[in-house]
């Protein structure tokens, strides 16, 4: 029975990895299909994280289900004249505010997980949870800085998942790290091109 469960979890993890990779690749290309693809991935990871007792990650992916729908809508209708959304950047004070939120919320959530659950790696798990939520929100708004947060999350996640013997998922996050760097560069170029293009009167 244990072997059957392990094989099933490996199959679910492998499927989630494929959809996760596709989601990030489509996001870099600013394809609207990143959202339904991401929806499949986050639902599968709800199952995985429950199984390995990474409760903050499980909660995160539950919220991701709602955020996938929100991002899908916002990319279609959140731009100029309710059209497609363009890449933009945060202003200095907003950037600092989001950074402080990630730091404080990670410490508080990590403390709650450490003192009230049997969560594995509560503070590291809390950081990836909080930073991912902020990154996902900024991604839905097509903010360039979302990629910087994803890079930080990917670095932390690689260590967490390797430690928990989720080797496929650790490999996925290593690929995510590379893709996040490409995403940052691609969106930076896209924003520069948007700024250089003549604006309609």
From TrEMBL:
The keyword NAD does not apply. This is Nicotinamide riboside transporter PnuC. Pfam families: NMN_transporter. Required for nicotinamide riboside transport across the inner membrane. It comes from the Bacteria. It is found in: Cell membrane. Its main location: membrane. The chain crosses the membrane at residues 6-26, 33-52, 58-76, 96-114, 120-140, 147-164, 170-188. Keywords: Cell membrane, Membrane, Transmembrane, Transmembrane helix, Transport. NCBIfam families: NMN_trans_PnuC (TIGR01528). It comes from Thiorhodovibrio winogradskyi. The keyword Ligase does not apply.
């Amino acid at each position: 029975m244990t072997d059957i469960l392990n094989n099933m979890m490996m199959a679910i993890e492998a499927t989630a990895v494929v959809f996760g990779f596709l989601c990030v690749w489509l996001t870099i290309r600013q394809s609207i299909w990143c959202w339904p693809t991401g929806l499949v991935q986050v639902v599968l990871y709800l199952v995985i994280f429950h199984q390995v007792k990474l409760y903050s990650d499980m909660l995160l992916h539950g919220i991701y289900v709602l955020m996938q729908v929100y991002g899908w809508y916002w990319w279609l209708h959140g731009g100029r004249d309710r059209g497609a959304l363009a890449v933009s950047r945060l202003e200095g004070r907003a950037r600092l505010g989001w950074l402080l939120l990630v730091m404080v919320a990670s410490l508080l959530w990590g403390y709650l997980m450490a003192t009230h659950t049997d969560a594995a790696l509560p503070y590291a798990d809390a950081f990836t949870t909080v930073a991912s939520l902020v990154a996902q929100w900024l991604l839905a708004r097509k903010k360039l800085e979302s990629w910087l947060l994803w890079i930080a999350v990917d670095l932390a996640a690689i260590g967490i998942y390797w430690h928990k013997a989720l080797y496929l998922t650790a490999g996925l996050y290593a690929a995510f790290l590379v893709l996040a760097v490409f995403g940052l560069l691609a969106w930076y170029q896209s924003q520069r091109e948007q700024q250089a293009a003549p604006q309609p009167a």
